[in-house]
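Typical record is below.
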Amino acid sequence: MLTLHPQVSVRPEPFGALLYHFGTRRLSFLKDRRLLEVVRRLDGATTVDDALSDVPVPDQAAFRSALATLEKTGMLQ
């Protein structure tokens, strides 16, 4: 299961959010507030499917891709 890395800080913004990793000093932009909500739900969800439950099915592939990128860059673990 994916979770937010403990060294990542999340700052909500009107466009979505900024994620900053204090260990790698990497900055990531979430360009959709719904993606921010999915990232927040990851900690309480048992699966990625659970975290995506409120996302319309046509958008889920793009959200899964974004989550995979966040995992690859170390924002999620």
